[in-house]
Design goal:
This protein is mainly beta and about 80 residues long. The chain has one domain. Strands 1-2-4-3 form a four-stranded antiparallel β-sheet, with helices on one face.
Length: about 80
């Protein structure tokens, strides 16, 4: 929530055995795979590292401009029960 301006949304979908968490906002830039190491005292920069460490899959897609507004993006990750 720190990096967005304007509306955003979170959606949880449970399709046994997979939990998918999707986050939507108006900023069209997709995240890049995490590469930079952050120090133990850093206050930011760990979010995608945590997703890559714990998620079974993750990704994102841009949303084009249309009837519902100015577009943006959705980023999602999946956690599989029992893995």
């Amino acid at each position: 929530m720190r990096h967005i301006q304007g509306p955003a949304g979170v959606r949880l979908q449970w399709r046994h055995p997979v939990l998918r968490v999707s986050v939507w906002d108006l900023i069209p830039d997709l995240p890049k795979p995490y590469r930079q190491a952050v120090g133990s005292g850093a206050e930011a920069g760990r979010g995608l590292a945590i997703v890559e460490l714990f998620a079974d899959r993750w990704g994102g897609c841009a949303i084009g401009k249309g009837e519902l507004g100015s577009g943006g993006k959705t980023v999602w990750f999946e956690l599989v029960l029992g893995t």
